[in-house]
Records
---
Amino acid sequence: MNKKMIVISLGGSLIVPEEIDWKFLKQFKKIIEGKIKKGFRFIIVTGGGMTARKYIEASAKVGDIDAEDKDWVGIHSTRLNAHFIRTIFKKYAHPTICTNPYDLEGFLKAKEYILVAAGYRPGNSTDYISILLAKHFEIKKVANLSNIDYVYDKDPKKYKDAKKIKEICWIDFQKIVGNKWDPGSNVPFDPVASKLAAKENIEVAIFNGKKLKNLQNYLDGKRFIGTVIK
Ligand code: UTP
C-alpha cells in the first residue's frame, strides 16, 4: 500500500468557481508544498468547473450538439485546468498530463512529486479517474475536494430536512446516488466511481477544499469537517 501518496480530486468548482480563483490556488499550493517537503507525493485530478459548464452551455446555444459532444467539451475543460495546475506546480510536476487512465506506463514510472490527470472519454467523470488511479497506484484514500461541506442524504437545496452525513458505507451511499452514470446529474460522487471504490476498498473523503485549514487537517491525518465514505 502506498501510504505517502495521496490522490486529490480537485473539483473544477475550486479552480474556476466563476473566474479562476488564483487566491485559493496560491494557498492550496503552499499546503501541498508543505507536504512535499515531508516526503508526500500527490496525484491531482482536475475537474472542469465553470469553464466546462460555460462551454457546454454556449455550444448548445450555437449548434445542435449531442451529449457526447458536450462531454468532450467538458473533458477539454478538465484538460485545460490540468495544464494550468501542472504549470503552477512546474517545479514538482511530471511534464505530461494523464489523459488515459488505461495507459499508465509512463505515469507509474514517474519520479516527480506531483502527477496531474484530467478527463478521459465521454461517459466518465474525474471521480472515476481518481479511483482508477488510486487502484493502479495502490492508494487506499482519495480526497474529493469541492465546495460542499458534507454529503447529505438528499439534496439540501430542495429538502429542508436533508441530513448531513459524516460517515457512510459504500452500500448505503450507492442507495443515495444510484448506480448509473447520468451526464447531467449533480451527485456528490459519481455512481460508477462509487462502484469501483467499493470493490477496491478505497475510502473517499468529500469535503470543502476552500476551507484550507480543513484540507491541512485532512492531509495531516487530523480530524476534519466532511463526509467519509468507506
Ligand atoms: P468534471 O468531472 O469536472 O465534472 O467534468 P463536474 O462535476 O461538472 O465538475 P467539478 O466536480 O465541479 O469539477 C466536467 C465534465 O466533463 C465531462 C463530463 O461532461 C463532465 O460533466 N467529462 C469529464 C467526461 O465526459 N469524461 C471524463 O473523463 C471527465
Note: The pocket of uridine 5'-triphosphate is lined by residues 11-13, 47-49, 52, 70-71, 74-75, 78, 119-122, 124-126, 129, 146, 183 (CB under 6 Å).
---
Amino acid sequence: MTASNPSSPTRDGAEKPWGEFVTVTVEDGIAWIALNRPDKRNAINPGIVYEMNAVLDAMEEDDDVRVLVITGAGDAFSAGQDLKEYFRIPDAGPALDRERLYRANAAWQWRRMMHYPKPTIAMVNGWCFGGAFQVLIGCDLAIAADEATFGLSEINWGIIPAGIVTKSVAEVMSQRDALYYIMTGENFDGKRAHELGLVNFSVPRSELHARTKKLADTLKEKNPFVLRAAKSAYHHVKSMSWDSALEYLMAKSDQTKFRDPEQGDQQGMKQFLDEKAFKPGLQSYDRNR
Ligand code: ACO
C-alpha cells in the first residue's frame, strides 16, 4: 500500500488508501478517477494497482457515486505497465509477491470491472499503450481525444501483449485489425481507435471532458439496478449457446424485475400505458415518483 493523501479523509475521519498514485474527485454523482503519475506518463506501477483496487471498493459502496470515469493526469491516459516497477523489480523478487501483484492488477483492470455494479467510462486523454488497453476495454464505454495516441507496443520491445491484453483486443477488434497492430506495433489516433471499435467515439481534446460528462449524465438517469443487470447479462451471454442464452436471459429478466428496488418495469408500464406520461422510445420513465 502507498502513502495516502492526508487531505482526503473518509467520512469516518480515517485517511483514504489512495491519493498518491490515484486521485478521485466526486462531483454531481460522477467519480472522476485519474491515474496520477504524469511524470511517468501514468505507467501502471504497484501503487496504482493497489490504490485502484481500494478506489473500486470505496466507490462501490458510496451512494453519492453513480458513474465512474477513469482517465489519466497530464498528457497521458497511461503508458501501460511500468517496465521497472511492474516487471523488472517484481521479476527479481519472491514469486508469491509477483503473483499477488498480477492478481491485484487483473482485478482492477478487468475482472472486477466487467461486472462492476456501476457504469464505467474510460476517458482516453493521451498516450495509451500496452496494459492500458486492458483498462480501456475493461470499462463499459470509452471516449478518446482525437489527438490521443494508441499503440500495442509490446512487439517493439520483445514481448507479446500478455496480461489479458490480447484477449481484450480480440473481443473488440476484428482479426485483421488486431493482428495488424499486435504484429506491427504501429501507433494510431483517437479517430482510428473509433474505427477499430476500441472506443465509442472520439472528439477534439478540448471537448473531451464535457462530452464524457454528458454521457455520464445520461447513464445517471437510468435505473441503476437494471443497468447493472443489463451489462452483466451481456458479458455472460457472449460465451453461451443461443438456447442457453435464452434460458439465462429470461431467468435474469425475472430476477431483475423481482429484485429491482424501484420496480422500474411497473413504473415504466404505468407511466406509458395508463398515464401516457412518457415514451420509452424517446426517454426514461420518471424515476422520482
Ligand atoms: N514504464 C516505465 N516508465 C515509463 C513508461 C513505462 N511504460 N512509460 C514512460 N515511462 C517513464 C520514462 O522512462 C520517463 O522516465 P524518466 O523521466 O525517469 O526518464 C518518463 O516516464 C517520461 O517518459 P518519456 O519517454 O520521456 O516521455 P515522452 O512524452 O517523450 O514519451 C511515451 C511518451 C511515447 C509514452 C514513452 O514514454 C514510451 O514509449 N513509453 C513506453 C510505452 C510502452 O511501450 N508501454 C507498454 C508497456 S508494456 C505493457 O504495458 C504490457
Note: The radius of gyration is 20 Å.
---
Amino acid sequence: MSSYIVLLGGPGSGKGTQAEILVEELGLPQVSTGELFREHLKDGTELGSLAREFMDRGELVPDEVTIGMVRERLARPDCTSGALLDGFPRTIPQAEGLDALLAEMEAELTVVPYIKVNRDTLLQRLAGRWTCRQCSTMYHVVFSPSFKAGICDRCGGQLYQRADDTPETQLRRIDVYFEQTAELIEWYGKKGLLVEIDGEQSIGAVGAELLMAVREQCRT
Ligand code: ADP
Ligand code: ADP
Ligand code: ZN
C-alpha cells in the first residue's frame, strides 16, 4: 500500500530533523520544498532566482510555482509508492493542489503528523540551526551539536547557517507560519488525518512518537 505523509509544523519545529529519521525507518523518499528551492538556487535556475526574493524575505513562494515544482518531483519514479512531504503544503490552495496531484496518481494522503511547538521554542531552534553543506544533516549549537565544531559527524562536510536564518527573516517566517500555514491544522483535522505530536520533547522522543503514529495509520 502506498503512503503519502505530510509533516506539518512551524519553521524550526523539527520537520527536517524528523524527516531524516522517518525516511530511514519507512524507506520513503523525502520531498522537502525548502531543499528543492535551495537546489534550484544553487543550480542558478530561473525558478531559483524567482524563489530567492521570497525566501530572502521569509515570505512564501507563490502557490502555482511551488505546486508546479512538487508536481514534477512526485512524478519521478521513486515517489510512485509514497513520499514524505516536509514543508509542503503551507497554504490551503497548496493543500488542494496536493489533493489534486495525488488524485491524478490514484493515491491519497495517509496521515498528517503535526509537530506542535510553541513560538519561543521555534525561535530558539532557528537561531541555533546549522546545516551540513554536503549532506544537509541538521545540527543545533545547544540542543544537537556536532562532535567537532563546524564539521558534520556524518560525512565530515562543513556546517553553515542558512542565508535565510537571519534574526529578521526567522521572525517573519514564524509570523507567516501563524498567518498562512497554521490554518492547515484545522483543515487536516476536519479530514481526520491529523495526529498531534508533542514537539517540545527531545529529538529522539519526538521521533519515537512520530514513528508510532505513522505506523499505526499506515496499518489501518
Ligand atoms: P524552515 O525549515 O525554516 O521551515 P524551509 O527550508 O522549509 O524553511 O523553507 C525555506 C523557504 O523556502 C521558506 O521561507 C519559503 O520562502 C520557501 N518555501 C519552502 N516551502 C514552501 C512552500 N511549501 N510554499 C512556499 N514557499 C516555500
Ligand atoms: P524545520 O525543518 O521544521 O524547520 P529543523 O529540523 O530544521 O526544523 O530543526 C530546527 C533546529 O532545531 C535544528 O537546529 C535542529 O537541530 C533543532 N531541533 C530539531 N528538533 C529538536 C528537538 N526535538 N529538540 C531540540 N532541538 C531540535
Ligand atoms: Zn554531512
Note: The CA atoms of residues 74 and 80 lie 8 Å apart.
---
Amino acid sequence: MGNFKVEKTKNSRRMMRTKVIAGNWKMNNDINGTIELISGIKSILAGKKIDAKLIVCPPFTSLETAKELLKGSDVGLGAQNMYFEENGAFTGEISAAMLKSVGCEYVILGHSERRTIFGETDELINKKVKKALDSQLKPIFCIGETLEERESGTTFDVIKRQIQAGLSGLSDSDMKAVIIAYEPVWAIGTGKVASPAQAQEVHAFIRSELVKLFGAVSAENTVIQYGGSVKPDNARELLGQPDIDGALVGGACLKAESFVGIAE
Ligand code: 13P
C-alpha cells in the first residue's frame, strides 16, 4: 500500500518501547478455569525473566479472583470493556470505578467484536476512552479493518477514521497511558495471520497518524500491539518489526504455555 516513515524531530530520540503482551480471554473461563490458567501462567513465569510486560484480561466475573491470584506478580490486570457513565440505570453495564475497585489497571476498548456484534460506534468508544483516562485506567484501544475494507482498498481510510474519532479530544499527555492494538478483523480467530510486512505497513501508518495528532515524541513512545492469530511460532517475526510493540492475543492466551511462549 504505502510507505510510511515516521519523521523524527531533532529532539526525538527513538525510545525503546517495552513490548506489551496482553491476553484477551473473551467470553472464556469461569472461576475454576481462571484459577487454573493464572496458576499455570505464574508457575511457568516463576524464576524466569521475561523482557515484556504481560497483561491478562479475563471476563468481569473473574477479575476479583484474578486480582487475588496475581498479588505480588508483575502480570497486569485488565478488563475487556466498560461503560462511560459514572453509575446509574444502565442495566448490564460496568463502570470504570468498578473496574478500579477490582484491581484493573487496563481496559480493552473498541474491540472489533464490540464494534461488529454489539454495534459500538467510534463516538461511543471515544467516550469510553476518555472516561477510562479520567479514571486512571489505561485503555487498550483497538482498531482494524474488515476483509471487505481491505479488499476494497480502504484500510488506511478506516484506520485513520478510527484513530481520529476514537482518540478525539485527547492530549499528548493522555497518550502516555494509551496502548493501541491493530487487529485486522479478517485475522481474528481465523488462523489467517497478517504477514509481518502487512502488519508493519499498517503500524507505521498508525504511527504516522499519531505524529500528526500528538507530535513525534508521543507517537514514538506509543505502544502499538498487533492482534489476530498470534501464536508462539509467528510471534517472533511479527514482534521483530520496527513498529510492532507487542501483541493482543485471543485463542493462544487460553493456554498458559502458549501465552507465555509468545512473550518469550
Ligand atoms: P485471536 O488471537 O484468537 O485471533 O484473537 C485476537 C483478538 O481478537 C484479541 O483481542
Note: The chain has one domain: 19-263.
